[in-house]
Design goal:
This protein is an alpha+beta fold. Helix content is 55%, strand content 17%. Residues 120-187 form the COMM domain.
């Protein structure tokens, strides 16, 4: 991973570290590695979203472990230096700065750890479509709903999950949401 970190410019790496700290502090639901990767690629650096996600997981593990062990900035950098000698100098500088500025704010309560084992809903988008025809059927005129859920998994990676529903399936889906809303009104 150190060779991939070396590819990432310091400003993008700092942004990644900042987002990870914000995620660990429950201020944002996750790190949008796909969007960040696209911006890095637009700047001319060849890196794929899978490698960036691995780096984000490593940094997230590093920060959460340091918070759990209540490490000072110098203890973290010393431990990091002993464990990984191939880490680029700019990465160590960014980690030092971010941890020094915001590391103590990471909450590591037991409730937060237990809650982190479940993904978190971020956004929902939907659209109505109609299949007009196909190569095997001349006139389908078949309506469907496409739903895209944006979900942050426990590690903080934001992913899109898409699915299609027929109109009867959508009506059932909608009815269940109305039932949930009614139950929430009683709480």
């Amino acid at each position: 991973a150190a060779d991939k970190i070396n590819l990432i410019p310091q400003d993008f790496f700092a942004e990644l570290c900042e987002q990870i700290i914000q995620h660990l502090n429950h201020k944002i639901p996750g790190v949008n590695t796909a969007e960040l990767c696209q911006r890095i690629q637009t700047s001319g650096i060849e890196i794929n979203v899978g490698d960036l996600a691995k780096i984000a997981n490593i940094i997230s593990f590093l920060f959460s472990t340091a918070a759990r062990n209540n490490l000072s900035t110098e203890e973290l950098i010393t431990t990091l230096g002993n464990a990984v000698s191939a880490l680029p100098k700019h990465a160590v500088q960014v980690i030092r700065h971010v941890w020094n500025e915001q590391g103590k704010s990471i909450s590591v309560s037991e409730d937060a750890r237990n809650m982190a084992t479940v993904g978190q809903f971020v956004d929902i988008k939907w659209k109505l479509g109609v299949a007009m025809s196909s190569d095997t059927c001349r006139s389908l005129k078949y309506p469907y709903i496409t739903v895209t859920l944006k979900v942050a998994d426990p590690s903080g990676q934001i992913t899109d999950k898409s699915f299609e529903m027929t109109i009867p399936q959508f009506k059932n889906f909608f009815r269940q949401f109305k039932e949930m809303a009614a139950v929430l009104e009683t709480v």
